[in-house]
Design goal:
The protein is α/β, with parallel strands linked by helices. It is built from 16 helices and ten strands. Helix content is 44%, strand content 16%. The protein is globular and about 60 Å long. The chain binds fe (iii) ion.
């Protein structure tokens, strides 16, 4: 009672003071995406809406741990990460909440968001085969499955099984082919490694350019980044060609960066507004131009770099499955000796 009177009194006295309005208009974002790859968009959002975005960046697993330990007291309103597998982990950890938004439903296809609407994909990445243009011909390639073939003995570079992108790729293979076949496949892959897995996707692409291996499996935006980096990286990237796997079948494996509103969100309305902004045409175009990712939203124009790789059919597997099958994928790669 006293509290209410006091609040009302403060509100009346405070009328006209900009501090009152400003304090409410903010949103707190925990982002596993590097600052350079999100901040310009957040600034645009603030310019447009007047809502201030407080950005905390960190590794996905560390941010998730932090959310869990902060519990209801967490200042975070949104968690943003760069893989559906990690978004699923956050959901399983119980730190997200469902969001209803007609704008998000309209912009983002159902298979790029969580069935229970606890997270939404915001940019699309394709994990493809890249080959040395002077040592491999496109017609030698077809599917991820075919990479286990003997003709690729000691010719493939791919990063370790601890990498979530590989875990998600293997999850998609399990969804399509079942455990048993994929374990045989993973053993074949390991036999075909040119070297023990090490480094990131860019390192695999560089290894192809340097002749260490003839094929790499990597996300296309890394190649896009190299094509726009220093002369040395450009030269390496130009030795390598994108091949879209599984075009005759289910389509190329894709994944998303995405975000969900936290269970503890104190600024839920602003959080939903920010997600809607990130799914808007202008933001979708920005991802495709700045980070060489694909829009999740259909009909958004892409850059010349992306156009040069040609159009492709993407696997329409619900990305929730990548998270659900993740533990199985990890165990399977371990059994196959994929380090
Ligand atoms: Fe990445």
């Amino acid at each position: 009672m006293y509290k209410k009177v006091l609040t009302n009194a403060l509100l009346i006295c405070g009328l006209g003071l900009p501090l009152v309005a400003q304090a409410a208009e903010e949103v707190n974002l925990y982002s596993a995406r590097k600052e350079a790859l999100i901040k310009p968009l957040l600034d645009q959002f603030t310019d447009k809406t007047g809502i201030k975005v407080n950005l905390v960046t960190g590794k996905a697993d560390a941010l998730l741990k932090r959310l869990q330990s902060e519990g209801d007291n967490s200042p975070a309103d949104i968690l943003l990460t760069t893989d559906a597998g990690r978004l699923h982990r956050a959901k399983e950890a119980g730190v997200l909440q469902a969001v209803e938004s007609d704008a998000l439903d309209a912009a983002i296809p159902a298979h790029y968001r969580d069935d229970a609407k606890e997270w939404y994909g915001l940019s699309l990445r394709a994990r493809v085969i890249m080959y040395a243009k002077d040592r491999v011909k496109a017609d030698e390639l077809s599917t991820y499955e075919a990479l286990q073939g003997e003709q690729w003995r000691k010719r493939i570079c791919i990063r370790s099984s601890s990498n979530i992108y590989n875990q998600s790729l293997v999850s998609s293979l399990i969804a399509a082919n079942g455990d048993e076949k994929v374990e045989t496949w993973a053993k074949g892959m390991v036999a075909n490694f040119a070297k023990p897995p090490a480094g990131g996707d860019r390192d695999q692409i560089k290894a192809v350019a340097a002749g260490v291996c003839d094929i790499a499996v990597a996300n296309t935006y890394y190649l896009g980044g190299m094509l726009h980096a220093d002369a040395k990286q450009q030269a390496a990237a130009q030795q390598v060609v994108v091949f879209w796997p599984n075009q005759e079948g289910r389509g190329t494996h894709v994944n998303v960066s995405g975000a969900g509103v936290t269970k503890s969100a104190k600024n839920k309305d602003n959080a939903v507004k920010l997600l809607e902004f990130l799914a808007s045409d202008e933001s979708q175009k920005w991802y495709a131009e700045t980070n060489h990712e694909f829009p999740v939203k259909a009909g958004v124009a892409v850059s010349d770099t992306l156009k040069a790789w040609g159009e492709f059919k993407a696997d329409t597997l619900s990305l929730s499955k990548l998270g659900e099958l993740n533990p199985e994928a990890v165990r399977l790669m371990d059994r196959a000796g994929w380090r």
